[in-house]
Design brief:
The complex is a heterodimer of chains A (110) and B (114). Chain A is mainly beta and 110 residues long. Chain A has no helices and eleven strands. Chain B has no helices and eleven strands.
């Protein structure tokens, strides 16, 4: 059973637009929610993370929105750039247990 | 600062040959270590994780094995590779202690089994 459900599988956005990737979970024991960015042929790199006691976290053009009651969180990429084209993974963590979403392939068209 | 190394970066092996992939972490002690496999265009499949020397947990039964001979060294092995073992292998580390316990990934090894 997939512990973290991620959507969409792929996303195409025009340069300057907003990219939105969504994740949902069921286990209320999760207490940390990072997002990773992976370029082709590279390992995933930590992008931004949030704890469930915060509803939003922003770092530059990247924002995580967290809805604890709905058990959903999302990544927003403002002013999307071609250099943002990559695969994005959400994750949920409790203790030593890490669960990753299935990934979203983002393509930003110039 | 902490760094994680993997080698080799790429590997082409015939079916039935052995495999040894190595991962080392610098700048931290007693990390949790993980091996993942990623098929082309797919998500991350956890293969093994280790919370200490000689302690290995397997998530997926298969012809792969893992060992942790030293605190910051994690090795993925196989006695006989299958075609289905092809993929991108990622090593990662994390620290349970502390406020932030994200996983940090290495650069990966691209394995092609022919």
């Amino acid at each position: 059973q997939q512990q973290v459900k991620q959507s969409p599988q792929s996303l195409i956005v025009q340069k300057g637009g907003i990219s939105i990737i969504n994740c949902a979970y069921e286990n209320t024991a999760f207490d940390y929610f990072p997002w990773y960015q992976q370029f082709p042929g590279k390992g995933p790199a930590l992008l931004i993370a949030i704890r469930p006691d915060v509803s939003e976290k922003k770092e530059g053009r990247f924002t995580i929105s967290f809805n604890k009651s709905a058990k959903q969180f999302s990544l927003h990429i403002m002013d999307s750039q071609p250099g943002d084209s990559a695969t994005y993974f959400c994750a949920a963590i409790t203790g030593n247990q890490f669960y990753f979403g299935t990934g979203t392939s983002l393509t930003v068209i110039p | 600062s902490q760094t994680i190394h993997q080698w080799p970066a790429t590997l082409v092996q015939p079916v039935g040959s052995p495999l040894s992939l190595e991962c080392t972490v610098e700048g931290t002690s007693n990390p949790n270590l993980y091996w993942y496999r990623q098929a082309a265009g797919r998500g991350l499949q956890l293969l093994f994780y280790s919370v200490g020397i000689g302690q290995i947990s397997s998530e997926v039964p298969q012809n792969l094995s893992a060992s942790r001979p030293q605190d910051r060294q994690f090795i993925l092995s196989s006695k006989k590779l299958l075609l289905s073992d092809s993929g991108f292998y990622l090593c990662a580390w994390s620290m349970l202690a502390g406020f932030y316990n994200e996983q940090f990934f290495g650069p990966g090894t691209r394995l092609t089994v022919l």
